[in-house]
Amino acid sequence: MTLLALFAVVLSATAQSLPPLPAPQAIPKPGPAATDGAYVPQAIRPGGVVIPLFPPNSPFLKVERVKEAEVYNMSQVVPARIASIVNIHNPSIEVHRVERGINTGAVIILVAGGGHRTLNVGGEAADFIPFFYNYGINCVILRNRLRADGYNAQTDAVYDAQQAIRMVRAYAKEFDFDPNKIGIIGFSAGAELTSAAAVEYEAFDQKVKGDALGNVSSRPDWTGIIYPGPTPFARNRTAPAIPKNVPPAFIATPGSGDRVHAVWAMEYFDAMLKAGVPNIEMHVYGNGRHPGDPLPDGSRMSGGLTDRNGIPLGTWQYRFIDWYRDLGFLQKPGAETKAAKDVADFVAKPPRPFGQR
């Protein structure tokens, strides 16, 4: 018997003697399907604090459906990984804090995409928690309602995003958050919501005036718009008035490989640039496609934090951190940010209308 054949026999014997693999542990599960009251959303990552956005009798909810349980779509490879969620009728936020010693007080509300058919909380929400943790940034996962479940993306889902900002700000003291460093970043369909939240907060604050959260504002201190769906400035929509204190925005998208989303991104950027809004930054990458798009090798384009086979688009998150740090959001809690100073200057002395010297 050759040495190679002997080695194969040893390997075979070892494999046959191995005990069976144990079952995966701590698999997240949705709450019970049948309850007397509203469905209770469950944490999708260990340690998450889950808070419903609205009381069960809220006019923003469908009372006849609020008892229905969410449905988790699990990864077929990674046992404890929730790829996406559907059937969301009691929208919520899930809070994940950082250690006190590194806490900047800053908060990022993560709004996943999924074409309003599903909520891709794996790659476009949960994966970001450890990444931002290293920078002392607290994270919040938004579970917003979906068009596929009978909701209007431009109203119901946007309301969820706006109420999430209010809820995080209302609980800022309890969580050691800085109420002036609360922002929201969205991906694809989620970026439709964040772009709307960035310009429509005044109207929403009037809608909820007098509720349990009082006069807590839904204005984000910044917004992130990543390969967005149609923003409020899309050509087939009536563009809203840009508020005087509109927050700064970070925008990133593939370019020629994802033309539709790039155009929507540029429409938002163009509106802000013409208005002279400070600290608007945009990155359009020459190589890249929209997450989920087919690739020549038969695989599909990844999204979120993935490396994307080493192309520059795969490093957009570090460009975001550069922008975020530059605006002062990584300073200690309570310190006034450059973003806030620049907004105040913009309100006090807005630039001349575009095209006028």
Descriptive notes:
This protein is α/β, with parallel strands linked by helices and 357 residues long. It has one domain: Alpha/Beta hydrolase fold, catalytic domain (Rossmann fold, 3-Layer(aba) Sandwich). 29% of the residues lie in helices and 14% in strands. It contains 10 helices and 10 strands. Strands 1-4-6-5-7-8-9-10 form an 8-stranded mixed beta sheet, sandwiched between helices. α8 (259-275) links the parallel β9 (249-254) and β10 (280-285). α4 (153-170) crosses α6. The model has no long low-confidence stretch (mean pLDDT 93).
Strand order, main sheet: write it out: 1-4-6-5-7-8-9-10
Q: Terminal Cα separation, in Å? A: 90 Å
CATH architecture: 3-Layer(aba) Sandwich
Overall shape: globular
Q: What structural category arises from helix and sheet content? A: alpha/beta
Q: How many helices does DSSP assign?
A: 10
* Beta-strand residue fraction: 5-15%
DSSP summary, beta strand count? 10
What key attributes describe this structure?
29% helix; 10 helices; 357 residues; alpha/beta; globular; 10 strands; Rossmann fold
Short description:
29% of the residues lie in helices and 14% in strands. By secondary structure, the protein is α/β, with parallel strands linked by helices. The chain has a single domain, classed as Alpha/Beta hydrolase fold, catalytic domain (Rossmann fold), CATH 3.40.50.1820.
